[in-house]
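SAMPLE LOG
Freezer: B-3
Tube label: C17
Construct: single chain, 291 aa
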Amino acid sequence: MAGVAAAGGQATVETTPPPAPPPPASTSDEAGPPPANDEPPQDPNGRFKWVIPALIAAVAVAVIALFAFGVLDGTDEPTAASVTTLPAVPTTAAPTTVPPAPATTVAPTTTSTTTTTIPDPSSFEAVGVAIPASALTLTASGIGPITFDDAAPDAIGRLVASLGEPEETGSAGEDLGLCANDDGRFARWAGLTVVISGGFADGTFAGYRYEDETVPRMHLDLATPSGLRVGDPISTLNQIYSSYQIDYVSSEGTGLFRLSQADDLLLWGPVSSIEDSGRVEGIYAPDACSL
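STRUCTURE (predicted):
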């Protein structure tokens, strides 16, 4: 481009030289050495070697964070990245053994009853004077003057005065005519058994049973007021008490006679047979439990 300048009234024309033409393109064979560079040459793949470990570490940290704050704490918060988690390995907890509670035994409530047992005396004190054997008759109300419901010490004492000490004493029950719940005693002289309801110290005379029994030191010959004795034939029984009611029964295979008046039992006892040739084997007072 040309420019015009005024200087001292004269015009001066300045001409700008044209640009130099570009150098001609050179071929590869003619290319000179590359321009000098102060930096050493670098491998294009080498610059990324550190990136892979860094990515692996970042992923590991992310997985751990997810387990710690997402999967392991049981929350269902959505996460930005989908992470595949491995199922937890099931563990079996050791069973807890609870020792059994000690058994508690509750003592049952019981009502204690104190029972004082008075032992049978080894000897009995005689009471009054001796009663002749002929006066010790076997009646429906007792033995001679000794009657039922007399105090045991008095009844036993009078028999001791008449017959001496009893040969045997012991407990009496239903087998001797007492009721099922009665606590009784007996005293025996040869074939005569006296039944006491209660104890010897505080009981009462309740009955007797007489059977013919001869022992070395004693033989009793007791009879009813009408004269019936143990060993008499049945014919004698029928003759003496012809005005009374006499029944012959069998109990557990044993023949028995029952002497009654107006339906009241007076005497009873075993017989060997109900035939006239049979004999009276015992004379008993009515059982205390049946009165």
